[in-house]
Structure prediction request, 430 residues.
Amino acid sequence: MALSGRVPLLLLLGLVPVVLRPSLGTVWLWVLAVGVAVLVDWLVAPAPASVTMHRRPVGTVRMGHPTETLVVATNGGRRTVTALVRDAWQPTAGASDNRHRVRLGPGDRVLLRTPLQPRRRGDLRAIGVTVRSRGPLGLAARQRTIEVAGAVRSLPPFESRKHLPSRLARLRELDGRAAVRVRGQGTEFDSLREYVRGDDVRSIDWRASARNRNVVVRTWQPERDRRVVLVLDTSRTSAGRVDDVPRLDSAMDAALLLAALAARAGDRIDFVAGDRRVRARLRSAGARDVSANLQEAMADLEPVIAEADWTSLAGAVTGFGRQRALVVLLTPLEPSAVEEGLLPVLPALTRHHRVVLASVKDPALEQLAATRGTVDEVYDAAAAEQVLVRRRHTADLLQALGVDVVDADAERLPPALADHYLALKARGLL
Prediction:
């Protein structure tokens, strides 16, 4: 049973007969009359069970982007139902305007729309649909919560895709669609064509020319079908927040941009994520929808308050094959975690692969180190400077082992990592 706001107002209205006939009996008589009216109204109210609910599939949406869920309410009874319907979701689904007033005659149906705007990744589920059916007096209502299955899959937002067009333009220049193809380091044979004035005579294919009437030259393009392995660290260090965004989410954004760019370049993308154990693994042969597949694989990943087992993650990289690859380690450049866990396994990786470490840098450290107006700020600056020195020392150790370090803030990391990939590809170092 649910009582409306009319019940306390009706009780207050009993002050009139109490004033006219002040006695305790008048008070109890009025309370009894109100109670009987409420009970009768509740008994006469249509049963909520007569209303059936069916939810249409919601699908997937990027985190922070709006969508909606549709519920079809059908009155299967013989009486008209006037009800308040609440479509309840877990808070991070961002359900708004989820209370709907409906009036359904026998056999009528209505479509209820509830806007959603997910604030967390993963599968966000509906809690239930509550139907509150009012009586004719509006004093009491029958209420029932119906379990109507529903879920929206919230994917990483991929905010860095705004940088993709400019990097694709540079890629077109690199692979010769906007520039003349010439032989050099990091190129491979593309095709044969007739010689035109200005071509490098060293590109003439004499065997092919001997079988044709015209002189034939070879054309070259940047090497394709390279392997790029993305390793996403989901350990405790990735749970830290930079500008109120978890480091893990920023690393995902950088991984998605690099994967989209590398797939357009004709390279194969492999992905592994984990901490103490491997949490997700994805093998892709350079498919055009590699970004969508990666978003699906990343949707359920959350930081785990435990140290990363880099031996296990390195084994997962080896499991993709022994062919030389660009291995991108998306992990924070935290000195203690890197020196104790990552450094011992790096020689095995750098022996067979090109390794890049991409880290999200906290700009607050540099701000603290530069602010020295008061005594307290000087102490804060000294502590921040000490952390920065340790980070630089760790980066030097990594570079001494042959690891490229890309350390940038959350906004600049995705384009910086994409630029580093293009630079390696242009120099033929993949």
